């Protein structure tokens, strides 16, 4: 567990919020008091570290409407941009921001930038979309993003020039670690020019690997979809002599999707994730044991697992600088077939790579609830003048976190934690190190 200093959780503000919220909006507001905070840590061992200086305890601001506004709704213009890979629930976030802006704050100037940061570079030629209640009314039922998304950088100076030209006061950035790094570049440029433009992020990744937040929206929906695919692999495995269903799931550097889908589906015998390196020979021997005993097996492998086993090929990177991974699924399929052929044992491997199919689906009901609340939290934070922050979920609360924190590292599945131990217990797999 990362140990933080209290100051690391302070949220930057554009200035003093002076407008009385209820008087300005003309309706009742159940505001959150700034001093209502929750503990960042909850493990007693972590809390003990602060027993000598309780003032140093790191505390999290709760999300929600504030007693005072920084922005005057009648003069506020909002922008939304969605970047990086798709994730179930992005549209619900967009809808929630638009509805909260219109209905709670009476802000009607809401614009959606097209195709990620590309839409913030006017030279690319993608004018923003004007968003209103009608245009976003049904989008929560759709996968993807109605605004489009992209990878690849744009110059922060060019983007801030454009925001200034359009008179945007608040920009909501929906994206992963890369997007938040891009947003921090924007925040620096905005501060340099002493502009009053707030930047509020909504963290997005189906990999669930964003630092310091406990749950990423869309993760549950992706796991749900992955579970359906694993069920198909199980059927295929049971339908053939010594059938082996092999499913590759997304998860670049962390195995959250693979581990959760394994637990959710109940039929997986081997779950391979990037956090738990394995020796191929040991894994194949255990697979042979399983096949001899039960005559079928299901393997789930996260795309980032076992990369060290793959033959060296020249690394390539996507436009955002993310390393392209080698295909561990195809590699394992070949190795399994080779191994069983050498042993003169029949094995029928059915390899399923659902790839994008698990992340482009519509969100589950629970993810929709989550997205709705994240979108609302983002608007409340921005209207109070908070900036360079994200909204997130931690210790059972919607909270604010500085953007600088969430770009520090990518969260990994804890190998000594409960989830991974449960995977080991339920699959019966052993350590293949
Ligand atoms: N270090 C960085 N500085 C500035 N901008 C960045 C940086 N890294 C990424 N970006 C920009 O952020 C956008 C999205 O980044 P990226 O493609 O890495 O996806 P992401 O937000 O991490 O989402 P995910 O990886 O979950 O799909 C891109 O336009 C990219 O150029
Ligand atoms: O092919 P794309 O769209 O660049 O993205 C694929 C990657 O995006 C993610 O869905 C999210 O980071 C990863 O799980 C996956 O490796
Ligand atoms: Mg990323």
Quick structural gist:
One of its GO terms (biological process) is fructose 6-phosphate metabolic process. 35% of the residues lie in helices and 16% in strands. The chain is built from 13 helices and 15 strands.
How many separate structural domains?
A: 2
Measured on Cα atoms, how large is the radius of gyration? 24 Å
Structural class: alpha/beta
Number of strands: 15
Order of H and E elements: EHEHEEEHEEHHEHEHEHEHEHEHEEHH
- Residue ranges: pLDDT <50 for 5 or more in a row? none
How far is the first residue's CA from the last residue's CA? 24 Å
Q: Tally the helices.
A: 13
Largest sheet: 7 strands, mixed
The overall pLDDT, averaged over residues, is: 96
Helix coverage percent: 25-40%
Subunit structure: Homodimer.
Pathway: Carbohydrate degradation; glycolysis; D-glyceraldehyde 3-phosphate and glycerone phosphate from D-glucose: step 3/4
Family: Belongs to the phosphofructokinase type A (PFKA) family. PPi-dependent PFK group II subfamily. Atypical ATP-dependent clade 'X' sub-subfamily.
Domain Phosphofructokinase: 77-381
What does this molecule look like?
- Pfam families: PFK.
- Catalyzes the phosphorylation of D-fructose 6-phosphate to fructose 1,6-bisphosphate by ATP, the first committing step of glycolysis.
- It is an enzyme of class 2 (transferase).
- By secondary structure, this protein is α/β, with parallel strands linked by helices.
- It folds into two domains: 257 residues, Rossmann fold (3-Layer(aba) Sandwich), CATH 3.40.50.450; 155 residues, Phosphofructokinase domain (Rossmann fold), CATH 3.40.50.
- It is built from 13 helices and 15 strands.
- The longest helix has 20 residues.
- The site of 6-O-phosphono-beta-D-fructofuranose has 12 residues, from loops.
- 6-O-phosphono-beta-D-fructofuranose binds next to loops.
